[in-house]
Amino acid sequence: MAALLAEVWLVLPLPFTATGLAAGFAWSAATHAVLDRRWPVRWLLQHTGSPVFADLRSTGLNGLYLADQALHSGVLLISALLITRL
């Protein structure tokens, strides 16, 4: 993540601070550690009206995987905002 961020900074001189970098990397690491366990994703789907989607494993789709990836994208967006705004 740091290497990719360095490459982006060469093209787009974004305002990075030590606080923002620390907050962004910490947020990403902590939330990925939780989401990668998969049970929080399943719990979230089951308690937000999507238990069938959590168990979907047909026609080439896996609901739990798709929800996991969507949550990871959201987490990375928040991480990017922390890095560039703090």
Can you offer a commentary on this structure?
There is one protein chain. This protein is an all-alpha fold and 86 residues long. The protein has one domain. The protein is built from five helices and no strands. Helix 2 (18-35) packs antiparallel against helix 5 (63-85). It is elongated, with a radius of gyration of 16 Å. 7% of the residues are buried. The mean pLDDT is 90.
Taken together, the total number of domains comes to 1
User: What is the straight-line distance between the termini?
Assistant: 18 Å
Largest sheet: none
* Cα radius of gyration in angstroms: 16 Å
How large a portion of the residues is in β-strands, by DSSP E? Answer: under 5%
Query: Which descriptor suits the 3D outline?
Result: elongated
Question: Which short descriptors sum up this protein?
Answer:
single chain; 86 residues; mainly alpha; 5 helices; elongated
How is the topology of this model organized?
Elements: H1 2-11, H2 18-35, H3 39-46, H4 51-54, H5 63-85
Helix pairs in contact: 2-5
What is shown here, in short?
The protein contains 5 helices and no strands. The protein has helices at 2-11, 18-35, 39-46, 51-54, 63-85.
